[in-house]
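To the team - hypoxanthine complex, inputs and output below.
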Amino acid sequence: MYNKIHETVKFLKEKGISNPDFGIVLGTGLGSLVDWIDIEKSIAYRDIPNFPVSTVPGHSGTLIYGKLGDKNVVAMQGRFHFYEGWEMDELTFPIRVMKYLGIDNLIVSNASGGVNPNFEVGDIMIITDHINMMPEHPLRGLNDDRFGPRFVDMHEPYNLKMVSTMEGIAKENNIRIQKGIYLALQGPTFETPAEYRMVSLMGADAVGMSTVPEVIVAKHMEMQCFGLSVITDLGIEGHVEEVSHEAVQVAAKASEKKIGKLVQEFISKW
Ligand code: HPA
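Output:
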């Protein structure tokens, strides 16, 4: 994998991607952040050697390079999920590429189901921690010490200074913000009422099907991570609602502008 990564990095550097400051995974809810990016390069995943190509509606597959304020960013428009059938090392491959492009700061976003009774649909949650309940671990197998250590410290998976910076920005902009723990399940089924209850009992505030593998791989390589989750539906006991991919997209879309604004200010300030 090490050689493949370097092949991809070489290709992207030759395309003009240089000195990026931030890597961004534009999951559900963060799509409109591209409107803030002064795009210099836009490359389809299918044209990038070794890159996976996403299959989920609403997840287009384009790698974007440009300026956000005075920072250079590499943004993934479209991410990969375990439930699509990708292996963990495939779906986290772009994160490793980002690291070897020179990126030390990663921003991820996703849509999730809220199980915290204080949450409302449309809330934006700063991810302060996660619980990995996916059936596979991205670091299982022989460790390649060139990436990082066998046993990875996870005492601060999401950078605390980034969390407090974003809280400050939300306050200044009068944007309601929540903080909480994100639990990752494989999907692709949404949770049953009993499963939402389990998620809550396990100590999480929201549940989704992504993000955790990317953050684990980023931490393996000592990147600083920051995550936002849009609460697109609720799995609160007694109030478990019907949910569909379309409803998730609609709810996420409604919060997109706010999230775009928050992240744009965050990157400028950092
Ligand atoms: N569960 C899992 N993933 C999700 C949900 C949910 O309720 N909402 C959006 N993504």
